[in-house]
Design goal:
single chain; 5 helices; 5 strands; 38% helix
Length: 164
């Protein structure tokens, strides 16, 4: 798959992942785990964006993907987001992957793999489960080094601050 191919409105997967990284830096600036996400409609419009906010919002569901899906649903006036692509800097957890399935997201593009909790092929694969009523095309590793470095640096600083 050519990840630099345009995805409507002249946006490539690389361009969209760069925007997701900008959103992840918003999370980091707020003291949250740096994960950013955006939803792009089939015609190439950004219809939802989000970054991790569970700590500040006291909401365990306030992951970047969930917030981006909520914004996209509001923008379209529907929770069904067929034809849309969700971009996120880290492979989604089971909660977020299940929400994407429920929203009928067509494509998932993510940066860093999450071998401990990833639900798009690492630890689980809810995105392609035959037990669910929808499957989506999931593609990982886009700007993986940059996405992974952002997370590794964040956790290294956190450990250093605790004296570990």
């Amino acid at each position: 798959m050519d990840v630099s191919a345009p995805r409507g409105a002249g946006r490539s997967d690389i361009d969209c992942m760069r925007r997701a990284l900008e959103l992840a830096r918003e999370a980091e600036a707020a003291g949250e785990v740096p994960v950013g996400a955006l939803v792009v409609s089939a015609d190439g419009r950004i219809i939802g964006e989000g970054w991790n906010q569970p700590v500040g919002s006291h909401d365990p569901t306030a992951h970047a993907e969930i917030l981006a899906l909520r914004a996209a649903g509001r923008a379209l006036g529907s929770y069904r987001l067929g034809g849309a692509t969700l971009y996120v800097t880290l492979e989604p957890c089971p909660m977020c992957a299940a929400a994407m399935v429920h929203a009928r997201i067509a494509r998932l593009v993510f940066g860093a793999w999450d071998p401990r909790q990833g639900a798009a092929g690492s630890a689980f694969d809810l995105t392609r489960s035959r037990s669910l009523n929808h499957a989506l095309d999931a593609f990982g590793g886009v700007l993986a080094d940059e996405c992974g470095a952002l997370l590794k640096d964040f956790f290294a600083r956190r450990r250093a601050a605790r004296g570990e």
